[in-house]
Amino acid sequence: MNDTSMRAEVARRSKVMIDRPQEPAEVALYWIKYVIRHQGAYHLRCPAVTMTWYELYNVDVWATVVVLLVIISYVSVRLIISLCSWLFSKSKAKTD
Asked: Which segments cross the bilayer (predicted)?
């Protein structure tokens, strides 16, 4: 509380916050009138209000990504297993 640098910083920030083209009450009044003029201003509402939960969280996109990753993983594992079995069967055939 007695630190002069803190007081100077508080005064600077206060000056920045107070310097506005309009008073907060005028801004609030403008937006209230705007909503009344445009019958609720539905065009300003967030689209998430009307979306279902699976649209909102992109469940279809995530499900597609997961399925593709599972398929790619499965094919990769099968390919590695068959490649290893082919390599080891060739090395045993050479030794026999």
From this structure: 61-88
Which residues lie closer than 8 Å to 34 by C-beta, 6 or more apart? 41
Provide the 3-class DSSP secondary structure of residue 22: coil
Which pTM was predicted?
Answer: 0.53
Tokens 């201003």 correspond to: 41
Angle made by CA atoms 48, 49, 53, in degrees to the nearest 5: 65
Mean pLDDT of the 41-47 span: 93
Task: Say which DSSP state 28 is in.
Answer: H
Q: What is the 3-state secondary structure (H, E, C) of 80-96?
A: HHHHHHHHHHHHHHHHC
The C-alpha angle 64, 65, 70, rounded to 5 degrees, equals: 100
